[in-house]
Design goal:
Layout lengths: L7 H32 L3 H29 L3 E5 L10 E5 L6 H9 L6 E3 L1 E2 L8 H7 L4 E2 L4 H6 L6 H9 L9 E4 L8 H7 L11 H11 L5 E8 L7 H6 L4 E10 L13 H30 L2
Parallel strand pairs: 1-8, 2-6, 2-7, 3-6, 4-5
Antiparallel strand pairs: 7-8
Helix pairs in contact: 1-2, 1-4, 6-8
Length: about 300
């Protein structure tokens, strides 16, 4: 189908309809195993359900990837994925340009590493359908308290990290990939100007969210995948992706060992560690900014 000339909008509508149909077909199966997992608190049964549910998510992503390959003619330039393993634990971060980043990264990493999982706000568990799916797939729900809230109610101190550690306890038994966009939002020129970002291609990174993950899971996750995504031809919106208007996508992956001093750190209370971690994240972001320059420069010579 990728060789058939079809109007872009037609491809976009067709792609969305097929993704919806794929979701409607798989969701009832996911729901059955989610209910079994909920009602039978036996570790072996829940572990088995987790594996089946992960396989369902893998099928869903795999179909979406096949759909993109069939409908569109995207040149995928994936670098640094050769030594990745599906039986390893990873923390993944990436620059964020559009909602197309997520399906693009899933396309590059599905089957190469464990299923990507995001830390979600606790309120999102009530989102129809998706909340159940996220819970069933062990996406960790978290409730973070600000310093102001803790100052007003000291009993809240430590509760957010304790709750997150409890939510992540199951990850000790099944390899997992925790994903986080450090910028916290999609890059736009307006946001870049408003932030007075010191980087050319990036917004300022938010170190706190990453620190929260490493504080809660530092004894399990020790490897970071620093992913840089580039759209050399400029177009990168999710509608552009659905319509087949994106011709090239570069996904550059650096595998890094997270410094030991940041694993299980007390980011909120230890000022020295917090400052050190922010310097480390800033250096990662400066290197990523330079890498984007090189990737764009190389792609323009092709």
């Amino acid at each position: 189908m990728g060789n058939i000339r079809l109007p872009g909008a037609f491809k976009g509508v067709l792609a969305i309809l097929l993704v919806i149909l794929n979701t409607l077909w798989l969701f009832p199966i996911l729901l059955v195993f989610a209910i079994i997992k909920l009602l039978i608190p036996v570790r072996a049964i829940r572990k088995g359900c987790t594996r089946v549910l992960g396989r369902i998510a893998w099928l869903w992503i795999g179909f979406n990837n096949l759909l993109a390959d069939s409908l569109h003619q995207i040149h995928w330039d994936v670098r640094g994925a050769e030594d990745l393993r599906p039986d390893q634990w990873y923390f993944v971060t990436c620059n964020h340009q559009s909602w197309a980043d997520i399906p693009a990264i899933q396309h590059a990493l599905n089957s190469r590493i464990p299923l990507l999982k995001f830390f979600l706000k606790q309120q999102l568990i009530w989102v129809p359908f998706l909340g159940i799916a996220w819970w069933a797939l062990d996406f960790p729900f978290m409730q973070r308290h600000t310093r102001e809230q803790i100052a007003r109610d000291p009993s809240l101190k430590g509760k957010d990290i304790a709750a997150t550690r409890a939510a992540c306890e199951k990850f000790r038994f099944t390899p997992v990939t925790v994903f986080n966009f450090m910028e916290g939002t999609r890059f736009t020129s307006a946001k870049h100007t408003a932030q007075r970002s010191p980087y050319t291609h990036l917004l300022k990174p938010k170190a706190g969210g990453t620190a929260f993950v490493l504080e809660a899971m530092g004894d399990t996750i020790t490897t970071m995948l620093d992913v840089t995504i580039v759209y050399p031809d400029g177009k990168h919106g999710i509608w552009d992706y659905a319509c087949g208007r994106i011709n090239r996508i570069i996904i550059d992956i650096r595998t890094l060992q997270i410094p030991q001093r940041f694993l299980g750190m007390n980011y909120q209370e230890d000022d020295e560690v917090r400052a050190d971690f922010q310097v480390w994240v800033g250096q990662l972001w400066a290197e990523k900014d330079q890498r984007i320059d090189h990737l764009l420069s190389d792609s323009n010579r092709l």
